[in-house]
Amino acid sequence: MQFFYFSRQYILGRILLRRNVQLIDEKIRKLLDTYDWKSLITILSDYALVKVRKGYWHGGRVDLPMGNQIEDLVVGAIMKVYSGDRKWHPEKDPELVDYLKSIIDSDVNHLIYSYDHRFRQHEAVGIADSDHNNETIPYEKADRSQDPLSQVIADEQWDCLWKSAAGDEDMQMVLLCSEEHCIDRSAISEKLKWKLDRVDIILRKIRRHMSKCIERKC
Amino acid sequence: MSNVNKKSAAQYLHNLIESVFQSIEHDQESMNELYEESGISREDLVSNIFERIKNEKREVRTAAAKARREEFLVILSKLKERGKSFTKEDIIARLKEFLKPETGSSSFAFFHKLEAMSDQDIRAMLEEIDLISLLEKSKEGDQE
């Protein structure tokens, strides 16, 4: 006489599949509950805002497609981990915040790409990698120099920045550093032999001018 | 003004934007300005997200609890279905088998009374035993 047991995992899996719900490992859930979510949310909100604004300055959209907001990106990333939709392995990714940031990166790129793929296939933003059709180039890394219109716009914006820097030697030095391929604050600090605090102050000043130049208010 | 060609301007601008946004993450004043320029209140944003996460977590847990309940209902109906196809002798043999590993004088005494029980009572007992066993397995799974 044989008694057949449906395994617990099998039955639960079938039910959850029907409900489109995935269960998270209990140990992971307990570990997640130990985090200070208020500070994590603050870090992730800052990150998502920087990501979206940077994308815009790089020639992307001013807002996220399909009515998505910064809030949706952060909630989406956290809930993907909480619901088990994205499986977080602490031994592989010990820093939860970095793992959540990577989900935000992937969601932003996916949103931008899926939108642009449908509506603006030939623009420089979110270009599909022809060898790997399922992948996208992160949209802030799309090469605007390949697109003639983007080149003209970039030229105007760069001129605008130099005009703004007239009479300000520190700003001019930082602009020159960018022309000499400095792509981060540490490289600028090293090149100009300035402390990072000083670099941040000048970059803040440049950012204020950039808002006007990039958003074509100058 | 720097004399740059058009292609280079795009690259220089790219470099500068990368530096600026990297710096913002280290500069609280710039971050506050970025929120302001974007028309977003950071405090409201964080508290909205916190509330949404709390609600969504509750929903996920409720869905999981409902799913567990459904799981046991499915198991129960399977057990009931299965019980119908066995004879009383089959069920007694199954109970005997089930009780054997945890043998003791009380379980033998219990076993001797089985013969006298009605079919319905024996089937009900088999269902209960199987359910208890499944619930125990489920508990072990949760504790792992």
Describe the structure.
The complex is a heterodimer of chains A (218) and B (144). Chain A has 218 residues and is an all-alpha fold. Chain A has 2 domains: 18-141, no CATH class; 147-214, no CATH class. Helices cover 61% and strands 0% of the residues of chain A. Chain A contains 9 helices and no strands. In chain A, helix 6 (148-164) crosses helix 9 (196-214). The N and C termini of chain A lie far apart (86 Å). The relative contact order of chain A is 0.08. The model of chain A is unreliable at 1-8 and 121-137 (pLDDT under 50). Chain B has 144 residues and is mostly helical. Chain B contains 6 helices and no strands. In chain B, helix 4 (88-99) packs antiparallel against helix 5 (105-114). Mean pLDDT of chain B is 73; it is low at 101-109. The chains are: A mainly alpha (218), B mainly alpha (144). Chains A and B meet through helix 1, helix 3, helix 4, helix 6 and helix 7 of A and helix 1, helix 2, helix 3, helix 4 and helix 6 of B.
How would you summarize what this structure contains?
With 218 residues, chain A is mainly alpha-helical.
